[in-house]
């Protein structure tokens, strides 16, 4: 956020609509929606197209999981829930946010600002913690396979998703009802954001950001990295146990045809499982790059964001791009999800 005067929503007298702006001389700085009118229009159109594409991709992923029994596993249901959240964000949350920014958000009422931001904050908190639940599910099946059945039960999934929603609502409710902070309109685009604490109190935004974003995403990366390293070690080792007659066979010495087929089927299933994990890991990495694009740019050039109002708009578009990554990667690199998508499209053509 640029280092400018903050306009609080609870003081309507400080809100200046564009129709009341006056410039006393020719050197006065015009507001960005006047200076960058064409650039803002291009940003809005492109962002809405990307948002629509992301919503469509996530909706397809939800339908693929729902209509294919072989994908309705514990991880598949979590992927479906994640896609539903990202579909909700790109269908309602981000389009509303971008639209009110495009039509001058400073005309939005305090209640409207709080309501839209509460919806956005709850949905992206649920999305990030669903990513963590999914990563934990994959971690357990690799490192603690005997405990996986308990974690993947319908009761465990329902309990986990309920806890995620409860956390998201409880975490974001203080902002909406003004328990700790207020929402404010921040220049240059006067977008609705969280305000600093009143009377030099504790900045609850730090706790919010850590709990809603940084903590779950950091743990997700750690879990997937551990899985990838573990799988690489196992594949590199290729442990072959020697037998007395000098021949070597895989550990356990299964020679019967049925046992061989079962072992091959198990190996294929494990390979497919690892492919999905690697896809999710790559998706997480790209998602984080999109989500933290503002922070990444600020680290390389601290003043670039504040000096370029248009760049601030495009960093919001990067958020939307991040929500198309999971369905795109799964459809491109996961055979199961690609097969499910083709089956869904065939059903649609027959109808």
Helix fraction by DSSP (H/I, runs of at least 4): over 70%
Radius of gyration: 25 Å
Model regions low in confidence, pLDDT < 50 over at least 5 residues: 1-27, 239-249
Backbone structural class: mainly alpha
Trace the largest sheet across and list its strands: 1-2-3
| Oligomerization state | single chain
Could you give the count of β-strands? 5
Task: Determine the N-to-C terminus distance.
Answer: 50 Å
Largest sheet: 3 strands, antiparallel
Order of helices and strands: EHHHHHHEEHEEHHHHHH
* Chain-averaged pLDDT: 80
**Helical stretch count?**
13
Principal-axes shape call:
globular
Strand content range: under 5%
Layout: helices, strands, pairs:
Blueprint: E1 7-8, H1 32-35, H2 37-67, H3 74-102, H4 110-143, H5 145-151, H6 154-176, E2 183-186, E3 191-194, H7 204-237, E4 240-242, E5 248-250, H8 257-291, H9 293-300, H10 304-307, H11 309-322, H12 325-333, H13 335-350
Antiparallel strand pairs: 1-2, 2-3, 4-5
Helix pairs in contact: 2-3, 2-11, 2-12, 2-13, 3-4, 4-5, 4-6, 4-7, 7-8, 8-11, 8-12, 12-13
């Amino acid at each position: 956020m640029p280092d400018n005067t903050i306009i609080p929503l609870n003081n309507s007298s400080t809100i200046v609509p564009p129709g009341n702006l006056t410039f006393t001389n020719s050197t006065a700085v015009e507001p960005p929606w006047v200076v960058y009118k064409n650039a803002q229009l291009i940003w809005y159109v492109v962002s809405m197209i990307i948002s629509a594409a992301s919503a469509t991709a996530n909706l397809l992923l939800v339908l693929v999981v729902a209509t294919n029994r072989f994908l309705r596993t514990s991880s598949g249901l979590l992927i479906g829930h994640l896609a539903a959240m990202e579909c909700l964000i790109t269908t309602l949350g981000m389009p509303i946010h971008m639209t009110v920014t495009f039509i001058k958000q400073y005309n939005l009422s305090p209640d409207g600002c709080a309501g839209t931001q509460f919806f956005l904050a709850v949905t992206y908190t649920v999305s990030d913690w669903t990513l963590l639940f999914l990563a934990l599910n994959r971690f357990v099946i690799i490192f603690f396979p005997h405990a996986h059945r308990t974690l993947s039960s319908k009761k465990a999934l329902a309990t986990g998703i309920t806890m995620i929603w409860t956390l998201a609502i409880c975490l974001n409710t203080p902002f909406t009802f003004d328990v700790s902070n207020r929402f404010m309109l921040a220049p240059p685009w006067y977008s609705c954001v969280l305000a600093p604490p009143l009377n030099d109190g504790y900045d609850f935004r730090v706790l919010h950001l850590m709990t809603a974003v940084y903590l779950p995403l950091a743990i997700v990366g750690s879990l997937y990295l551990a899985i990838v390293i573990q799988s690489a070690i196992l594949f590199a080792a290729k442990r072959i146990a020697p037998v007395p007659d000098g021949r070597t066979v895989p550990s356990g010495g299964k020679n019967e045809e049925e046992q061989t087929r079962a072992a091959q089927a198990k190996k294929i299933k494990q390979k497919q499982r690892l492919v999905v994990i690697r896809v999710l890991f790559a998706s997480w990495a790209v998602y984080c790059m999109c989500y933290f694009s503002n922070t990444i740019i600020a680290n390389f050039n601290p003043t670039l964001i504040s000096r370029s109002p248009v760049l601030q708009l495009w960093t919001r578009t990067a958020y939307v791009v991040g929500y198309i990554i999971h369905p795109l990667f799964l459809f491109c690199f996961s055979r199961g999800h690609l097969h499910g998508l083709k089956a869904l499209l065939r059903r649609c053509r027959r109808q």
